[in-house]
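User: I'm new to structure prediction. If I give you an amino acid sequence, what do you actually give back? Let's try with this one:
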Amino acid sequence: MRRDQKEQQVRELSEAFNNYDSYYLVDFLNMSVDQAMELRKRLRENSYIFRVVKNRLALRALHPDSPQELREHFQGLTAIAFAPQNPVGLARLIKNFSEQNKILNVKAGLVEGQYLDSEKFDDLVRLGSREELIARLGSLMASPLLKLLRTWQAPLSGLGTLLSQLKTKK
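Assistant: Good question. You get back a string of structure tokens that encode the predicted 3D arrangement of the chain. For your 170 residues, that looks like this:
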């Protein structure tokens, strides 16, 4: 690769690291061409980006303020999966593809600016989607109000029952 091509690739990677605050470093050892095409297709359908990178060039493009632990994972075959939105969805997609084909291994990542090692990746996959988490939070916030409403309604319904019984007796 010529020097100008390397500089161009470093610029593109630097822009990607600037634009996306969530990405995963993936080891794709023993991936066939068909599997790679299938993975790229699935990622593209969900608006994710997958790039195979040279480690030295990626390290040059990486921000100086990025976690030091992340820099240690740029060894061997490395690809980067960028998440413009919904990093949990990307994690699930990678995990599902990995389980189906037994080839991908997530080395580490950055999720909304926070370092994520491979052990925490499985915990992230088990999280609900953003919409599910917001729905849970909304139901938790509404629960005390519903209980209060039921408490206020109980005496009124009892009074209504009492009045209807008095009416039937008279």
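You can read the tokens as a compact description of the fold. Here is one thing that stands out. Residues 129-170 form one domain.
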